[in-house]
Design a protein that fits this description.
The protein is of the alpha/beta class. It is built from 13 helices and 12 strands. The strands form 3 sheets. Strands 4, 5, 6, 7, 8, 11 and 12 form a 7-stranded mixed beta sheet that branches.
Length: 363
């Protein structure tokens, strides 16, 4: 159970279906893989997929600041290790690079502990073995595809059995165009399909209220991240002004950063990101949210988040994107719109050997 080695591998992999959330986005998939090996030979794996740079910086942070806290510790101390890393990096951390680094470690530790116990994570955490599959929505109807492209992507999801999709607004378009795009989507998919609308922090609170009131007419399922993460007052003003539910949380770090949403529970669904606190924080956030009647719809990484959702009392819906489906030995794929956690020990994920070999960034 004692951690004897920590290894990191930085990968740069071309997208199979590049995202088009902006007109000029052309980065490859940048993935950091962390392997934690115990003295008895158990290896746990954690991973991050960063979307706007910083991969090597996070890797250096693990090597300099985080690994020394973990080496020689028992994997059974995973939550205590999380707290110790938090304290050890407090002076330069609390958000950003240090939390990304400790999140990768945390995921690997939980994977190792699940393997040591011979249990998938959702069972290790007390989830029911016979719990049914978790619903998901089809994401990635990118604004950069244009109106027709967003609709085409949504219709492809619907043809595969999805009854909910997510499209983007803001950034590239004026408000009239955004509203027209949503109206066209509703007309194309009909009333039986839920439409999530993601602003990606592209508006001010006043803009979100003005445009959101117009979007109310199209029965959208939620309005996501209408304002920047730190504008909690803006979130609450928007939530009070609209009929549509307002959601967010993917850009917030740990339960500390999300505290205003718990203190003033006007946001009915939170979308934490595993890279901003790891699995330890995903579970803690879910517990705090449940006490306030808030549900959880995690940001990305359905292949791992399905384990969390099968073990918490307040799951809402998973975000399905095929960002990483091609890198796994056994990918977690939807059947219709439903996702089921694998019953392999730990998180049940393993990178294909040729991915680790062919796409590693040389030191």
């Amino acid at each position: 159970m004692i951690v004897k080695d920590i290894r990191t591998t930085a990968l740069s992999i071309p997208f199979t279906d590049p995202p088009r959330w902006s007109a000029d986005y052309n980065r490859p998939r940048e993935i950091l893989v962390v392997e934690i090996e115990t003295a008895s030979g158990i290896t746990g794996m954690g991973y991050l997929m960063v979307l706007s740079g910083g991969l090597r910086t996070i890797q250096a942070c693990i090597e300099e600041l985080v690994a020394p806290v973990v080496l020689g510790r028992s994997i059974a101390e995973v939550e205590a290790i999380w707290q110790d890393i938090w304290q050890a990096t407090y002076w330069v951390g609390r958000m950003g690079v240090t939390v990304f680094a400790q999140s990768a470690i945390d995921i690997a530790l939980w994977d190792a502990l699940g393997k040591a116990a011979g249990l998938p994570l959702y069972q290790l955490w007390g989830g029911a073995q016979n719990k049914g599959p978790i619903p998901s929505y089809g994401s990635g109807c990118w604004r950069g595809l244009g109106r027709d492209g967003m609709i085409e992507k949504a219709q492809a999801y619907i043809a595969n059995g999805f009854d909910a999709i997510k499209m983007q607004t803001g950034h590239m378009y004026d408000h009239d165009t955004d509203v027209a795009n949503v109206a066209a989507m509703r007309d194309a998919v009909g009333d039986g399909v839920a439409i999530m609308v993601d602003v990606n922090m592209g508006w001010t609170a006043d803009e979100a209220i003005m445009v959101g009131r117009r979007l109310d007419d199209y029965n959208i399922h939620w309005l996501e991240e209408p304002v920047v993460a730190e504008d909690f007052a803006g979130y609450f003003r928007i939530a009070d002004a609209l009929r549509t539910r307002v959601v967010g949380g993917e850009s917030h770090f740990t339960h500390y950063d999300l505290a205003p949403f718990f203190d003033t529970p006007k946001i009915p669904i939170l979308q934490p990101d595993m890279m901003r606190g790891g699995l330890t924080q995903m579970r803690r956030i879910a517990t705090l949210a449940h006490a306030k009647g808030i549900r959880i719809a995690p940001h990305l990484f359905h292949e791992l988040m399905v384990q969390v959702m099968a073990a918490i009392p307040n799951p809402d819906v998973l975000e399905y994107l095929d960002f990483l489906d091609d890198v796994w030995v056994e990918p977690v794929l939807p059947v219709g719109n439903m996702l089921t956690p694998p019953n392999r020990p730990g998180h049940g994920l393993a990178f294909r050997e040729e991915i680790l070999r062919d796409y590693a960034i040389k030191p």
